[in-house]
Amino acid sequence: MSFAVALPRRGIFDAWRAAARVAISHRIPPEKIDWTGAGGLFEASPLPQAPGPHQARVPQGFVGLAGSVIWHSAPERLALLYQALWRIDRDEGDPLSHLDPLGRRLNLMAKAVGRDIHKMHAFLRFRELPSEGRRRFAAWFEPEHDTLEPGSRFFARRFADMDWLIATPRLTARFENGRLTFHPGGTRPDLPEDASEALWATYFANIFNPARIKLDAMRSEMPRKYWKNLPETRLIPEMLKDAESRVERMRQAGASAPRPGAAAISTRYRAAMPQAEALPATLDEARAAALQCRRCRLCETATQTVWGEGLSGAALMIVGEQPGDREDLEGRPFVGPAGRLLRQAMAAAGIDPAQVWLTNAVKHFKFAPRGKRRLHQNPHRQEILHCRWWLGLELAFIRPRVVLALGASAAFALTGDDAPLGPRRGRLETGLHGGPVLISWHPSHILRLRENAAQARAREEMAGDIAAAWRKAG
Amino acid sequence: MARMSLQDKLAILSDAAKYDASCASSGGERRDSRKGGLGSSGGSGICHAYTPDGRCISLLKILMTNFCIFDCAYCINRVSSNVERARFSVEEVVTLVLEFYRRNYIEGLFLSSGIIRSPDQTMGDMVRIARCLREEHGFKGYIHLKTIPDASPDLIRAAGRHADRLSINVELPRDASVRKLAPEKRPETIRSAMAQVRLEGEAARDRTHTGRPAPAFAPAGQSTQMIIGADGADDVTILQSATRLYSGYKLRRVYYSAFSPIPDASSVLPLIQPPLLREHRLYQADWLLRFYGFSADEIAAGATAGHLDLEIDPKLAWALRHRGLFPLDVNRAPREMLLRVPGFGTRTVDRIIAARRLRSLRYDDLARTGAMMKKARPFISLPGWSPGGLTDSAGLRARFAAPPEQLRLL
């Protein structure tokens, strides 16, 4: 016995789903159902009313795929979907996969429907209709598939505060006072002229750059079949005809003489831009100059100069290696994970960071990009030497009684001695500036220690060094 | 001077805006107008039209004004240019956006501007336009605001409250070129602004200590643009610069814009044919950086004297120089290696991995994954196909690079 199923045009997805559920529950094989509803040469009866004994289960992916494919214009889509359902039910391969010939076909149909809906959202153009009260708009569109029904929700969400009508050959959608209804389709309505279309055409013609023509790119994204309902496409031939001569005119004209008066404006603006003093006379001038530092190449890759902060007359100055990722973004020293460790240790020793001067031996972040992250790199000797100019200015203007050097780079910058840090840690050395320098671990070195005991010991040592430096400074 | 009509101003101020490549409207937060207001956004963007230059129109991309006190040599609106000037009022921009939007011409607004009086004054005026759209008209569509260099952090914060996306152009791949060609711009403050946008965006995604979500800040992130071909920077320099921008400031996109001749050009810059193919190859390389696990250094390995091969795409160029890694067994290779096969896109690779969990793939299956078989063939092996000596053959590059030659009848 064979069956014929006739489905309504509107609400077809729910209707197909109900019919397919009944059919599969009776285990009716695909070849026994004519989904076009015609019945063919043989006698065909409608599907049974009551569900049969078999319960089919389908993956969520099938419902989603069917929900797209159903709007495709090909009549065989209903039979293909039932074939897929049949095979899922009998566990015959994976008819949802691209690698299965049926799956590939269904997925391509779903893609075509998705593209058709997307193009309707893109290329539909409303014209305003005369109205009192709520504004009214109407559009004519010719989709390739039956996509107005699934595609109109988008317009209901977007244009909720106006009434609108979208007419297509097969279906018309009406949105009035927040209610969406569907009606039979028709022929292209005569819509009144809309003044905004002239402004839109002006925009379209002027946003186009005649010096770069890429017709293939335009045609592949805006296929010709849509052009007849797009008012702006009427301008394209004229724009193209003109393009070459416009570019030629630009070339012929060449460079032009500067507009009179422009030079004065430029001079005034540039004079007001921050200037770097070659020999800063104050700490503020030194900072302003450092913000524009180009003594080495690190300034090109880092975000900004990270200058020191704290009390300008501090008795204790704490010098780290260089700003890290976080410091580079915020423009402040010791605000990343290592900075947190240092600040915790200072708080434990009762030291207010506002009472000391916190800075780094190198003022720009040096890193290597790895995927989405920036990995810290140690500064070279040359980079430390270039940046010592700024550290020297900080020392000269702040005149700390004691300097705490955290890590090998800071120790080298302050003392000129690059001997290993281990034996020097906790000792006082004399800095190049003539004052005492206490050497300690850099907090990021502590964070990198894997072994708990070693990390705890190093933390204690740094805390002890901070306290000792503070006592000596006080 | 006669008063300019809205149409005149629109002509001038859209013409002035066309050198910004970005028109994306994707990635914003989900909003719609069912509870009031007009418009919706979220998800993938929509391109409402295409012009013959192949670029899409998604947003109304205009300048607030093309009066400018900066003198950037590559820019048509620089102070020394003789171009005709205009300025929109707040109401004019708002009306254009809303009326275009209601007719489904656009997804929203991309507002940029010449710099008038001062960076803060300009940024403040632009923020006023965005605020008016959002607060007075309940506009839920997409807003992209150009961040004016050297505008104060407070104004950038205010801009991020109303905009879906912010962007500030690095303009040129090297600091020295920026200083030379755009003397009023400072690379370090441009980067600081990008850092601020990143940090504000991250802070807005964290909940406040009371557990309430923080006010939104540019939910569609930030982007930037580099002009290609106006200075001597090579492709590797450009890609390294892009890598730093992506890793440092979490940019959604770096746009590469082939320098194109402008009317009323400056004598500092030559009027060249825009290097469109080079721009295209850079975008392909950019895709490899973001979605295929390539680093700039690896792409550089496929380049010659710092420049990408113009005849073949950068992934193929890389594969041809690393033939020892191929052919790849499609049924066993890890995902990161499958992504390196020329002709395999990310979706192809996803489909291969999903399918091979169930069974071994044969050559005939591959075509249905969407792979470009002609390109992939020399680099893969699987039941039903082995490239034999093809992978290492001397003529392999020529098979891809040779432009199809038109035969002539005698």
From TrEMBL, chain A:
Keyword annotations from UniProtKB, A to Z: 4Fe-4S, DNA damage, DNA repair, Hydrolase, Iron, Iron-sulfur, Metal-binding
Boundaries of every Uracil-DNA glycosylase-like domain copy: 307-467
SUPFAM superfamilies: Uracil-DNA glycosylase-like (SSF52141)
Domain of life, source organism: Bacteria
GO molecular function: 4 iron, 4 sulfur cluster binding; deaminated base DNA N-glycosylase activity; metal ion binding
Pfam families: DUF4130, UDG
InterPro entries to which the protein is assigned, alphabetical: DNA_repair_put (IPR023875), DUF4130 (IPR025404), UDG_Type-4/5 (IPR051536), Ura-DNA_glyco_family4 (IPR005273), Uracil-DNA_glycosylase-like (IPR005122), Uracil-DNA_glycosylase-like_sf (IPR036895)
Gene Ontology terms: biological process: DNA repair
Similarity comment: Belongs to the uracil-DNA glycosylase (UDG) superfamily. Type 4 (UDGa) family.
Descriptive protein name: Type-4 uracil-DNA glycosylase
Protein species of origin: Paracoccus siganidrum
Lineage: Bacteria, Pseudomonadati, Pseudomonadota, Alphaproteobacteria, Rhodobacterales
Automatic annotation (TrEMBL), chain B:
Highest taxon of the lineage: Bacteria
Elp3/MiaA/NifB-like radical SAM core domain span: 58-285
InterPro entries documented for this protein: Aldolase_TIM, DNA_rSAM_put, Elp3/MiaA/NifB-like_rSAM, Endo/Exo/Phosphatase_dom_1, rSAM, rSAM_sf, RuvA_2-like
Cofactor dependence: [4Fe-4S] cluster
Keywords associated with the record: Iron, Iron-sulfur, Metal-binding, S-adenosyl-L-methionine
Pfam families for the chain: Radical_SAM
Cross-referenced Gene3D superfamilies: Aldolase class I
UniProt GO molecular function: catalytic activity; iron-sulfur cluster binding; metal ion binding
Region Disordered, residue ranges: 22-42
SUPFAM superfamilies reported in the protein's UniProt record: Radical SAM enzymes, RuvA domain 2-like
Annotated transmembrane regions: none
NCBIfam families in UniProt: rSAM_link_UDG
Protein name per UniProt: Putative DNA modification/repair radical SAM protein
Organism: Paracoccus siganidrum
